Each structure stands twice: as C-alpha cells, then as structure tokens.
Queue: 4 jobs
Job 1
Amino acid sequence: MLDLIKLACRPRTLRTSALIALVVGSLLNLINQGDRLLSDMPLDWGRMLLNFLVPFCVASISAALNASARKGTRG
C-alpha cells in the first residue's frame, strides 16, 4: 500500500493527474452546473470541488496501479 502511495505522489504522476482533472473536471462542471454557470443561480461549490477531485484521484490511482504492475510490486 505504501508503494502505491509513493507511486501516486511522483511529480510526473501528479502533473498528469492534475491535467486530467482540469480537463475532465471542467467538462463535468459544464455538464452538471451549466445552467448555474449561465444564470444568476449560486454555484454548488462542493459539487464543483468533487468534479475535479474525483478525476484526479482516479487518474492517480490508475497510474500508481499501472506502474506497480509494470514493476511487479503490487499491493
């Protein structure tokens, strides 16, 4: 488990995950809160944060599991 955390926290993994989260999170926010963004309705900041956080976590975990599988040190 500690190996996976180390792999997920590598600078390259963090940069890639952040880029993915920026693109996917922006699209999710447009889909989920487009009406609020285009009107005077208040934004749901919790939902907005989750729209960026979930893709970041998925990308980081996926990259760590992939790197671990290539190394043969899963878990």
Job 2
Amino acid sequence: MLRSVAIVVGTLGLSVAISVVADDKVDGKKVYDTKCAVCHAMGVAGAPKFGDKVAWEPRLKTGNDALVQSVIKGKNAMPPRAGQNASDDEIKAAVAYMADKAK
C-alpha cells in the first residue's frame, strides 16, 4: 500500500509540474487578440494603435516593466488591468508582444 501512495504522490507531483510549465508559456498574441485588440486595434480612447511605431516610441523608451505597471495600475482612459481579468503573466506577455511589433 505504501508503494501505491508513493506512485500517486509522484503522479500528482508530475501533474503540478506540468501545469506550472504550461503557465509560464503565455502566448502574447493570443492575449492581445482576446483582451487588448478591442482598444489597441483602432486606437480607442487614445490607446496607441497596435504596430504604430510613432505612437509607441515614447512608451517603449520607458521599458517593458513600466508599460506592464501602466496596464496593471491603469493609465489615462485605460482602467487597471485594461478592464480585463488578466494575470500578471498575461499582461507581461501581451506587453512584450505589442512592444515587439512596434519596434
């Protein structure tokens, strides 16, 4: 019986490890498409348009960490977390994706 408990615990440990690895691989494009594009595709309420190098240039100079904090805390017309139920990892991935496309 002790042996089967060890196997179950080992299996559970493996399941947890697999889910943690999966969470680290957030797809920035998917987050943008589902949570950010509503405003950033068209520049709603002054949001810098996706891929607009001129609009993003001063923002990119502040660095990704500052951009992430702007999303988390909210800025101008954008509410905290962009009004979405987005995790920190999702926000980081979306910011990285959007910043990369604006360079």
Job 3
Amino acid sequence: MMDNTQLAKQMIQFNKAVFDNSFRAMTMVVEQNEKMFETFF
C-alpha cells in the first residue's frame, strides 16, 4: 500500500498531464478554425 503523499503526488501529476494535453488540443482546434475562417473570408 502506498502512503498518501505519494498517491497525492501521482494524482497531481496525472491531472496536470491531462490538463496540458486538453489545453494543447484546444489551442490546435482554435488555430484550425482561424485558418478555415481566413480561407473562407
């Protein structure tokens, strides 16, 4: 059984990784939309 501090550290690292990935995906989507708008208008 792991101690609580180790478990908490792993959960924080995991949440940070998920947040970073979703933030990167969001910025990619926004950039794609901007490119599409530029080609349309």
Job 4
Amino acid sequence: MKYTIHDQVILSRAPEGPLAAHLVAFANAISAQGYSAQSMKQHGSNRGML
C-alpha cells in the first residue's frame, strides 16, 4: 500500500514516529521552494537516505 504525503511525495508505508505529523508541512514547504521529486530523490540518494 502506498501513502501519499504530497502530489510529489509518495511513501511505501504510512509514516511513524514523532516527525510523522510534520511530513505534509515539510513536503509543502520544499515544493514551494522549487524542489521537485527528482531533485529530492537525487539529494537523498547521494547522502544514502533513499
């Protein structure tokens, strides 16, 4: 099952933990700053995050 956070951010499962409630606001903020899903994926994978 996929969990949609934002139109450009889709997770493979529902988020858990103390930061889960802030993911929608974070996704909206970085989208408003011009980040695309592709740039986020590249940045995260370069740091071993994705």
